[in-house]
Amino acid sequence: MSPNRVSDATGPGARSLQVRKLGLVRYGEALKLQERLVAERRAGEIPDTLLLLEHPHVITLGSSADPAHVLVGEEERARLGIELFESGRGGDVTYHGPGQLVAYPILDLKPDRKDLHRYLRDLEEVLIRTAARFGVAATRSPGYTGVWTATGKLAAIGVRVSSGWITSHGVALNVCNDLGFFRTIVPCGIADRDVTSLAVELGRPVDVTEAADAFVDAFSETFGHRRDVA
């Protein structure tokens, strides 16, 4: 799908943001795309960019992943149609699948956002604001990265910040995905917490496109980008 330009005044001097809604993308293809866009952003060839997509069933391993947190072997993964990738992001083990909104911000954090902890908290804020647009109360959980409701974990975060303070990877928001697939892993290494989705919280179907639009609004507000849907 062609990029949607985002640009509307949130304040003088605000950066523009290019939003690309890509649909269903295999994880390996998304890794290659991020690698290329990071290089282009570092070179100043593209503006800050936000990729919004879904993945076919895949388990990903972060830099601190414990292989024991993958609970299904190769044969069972093949039966279920689940790929397995080492991702290059931070964090433990996570799952992506259809019905889950995945957002990969390719941002230059220079000059005034060169703080990884602030970046993580900002991403949590985006997710909290996105959930609030649906009337869902989501919060942080002390000691963990991500966003929870009273029911369980609503969204996971795993990022990479490369040389030049360029970001990649990002967040996964459970919208209307089959939560049963989370039984194939220990999500983010947290064994005693359930997972949830916007659809579960609301008791009705939620379209990923609807969630993506809300996410773009919340992202632009939080990071102060100019928004302009072409």
What keyword list fits this structure?
5 helices, globular, single chain, about 230 residues, about 25% strand, BirA Bifunctional Protein, domain 2, three-stranded mixed β-sheet, seven-stranded mixed β-sheet, alpha+beta
Write up this protein.
The protein is an alpha+beta fold and 230 residues long. The protein has one domain: Bira Bifunctional Protein, Domain 2 (BirA Bifunctional Protein, domain 2). The chain is 27% helix and 25% strand. The protein contains 5 helices and 10 strands, in the order E-E-H-E-E-H-E-E-E-H-E-E-E-H-H. It has a 7-stranded mixed beta sheet, sandwiched between helices. A hairpin with a 4-residue loop joins strand 8 and strand 9. Helix 3 packs across helix 5 (208-223).
Mean pLDDT: 91
Number of helices: 5
CATH topology: BirA Bifunctional Protein, domain 2
Trace the largest sheet across and list its strands.
1-2-3-7-10-9-8
Distance between the termini: 13 Å
How many strands, which pairing sense, and closed or not: the largest β-sheet?
Answer: 7 strands, mixed
Q: State the low-pLDDT regions, or none.
A: 1-10
CATH fourth-tier homologous superfamily: Bira Bifunctional Protein, Domain 2
Please identify the structural class as seen in this structure: alpha+beta
- Domain tally: 1
**In CATH's first tier, which class applies?**
Alpha Beta
Overall shape: globular
Proportion in β-strands: 25-35%
Radius of gyration: 17 Å
Known CATH architecture: 2-Layer Sandwich
> How many strands appear in the DSSP assignment?
10
What's the order of the H and E elements? EEHEEHEEEHEEEHH
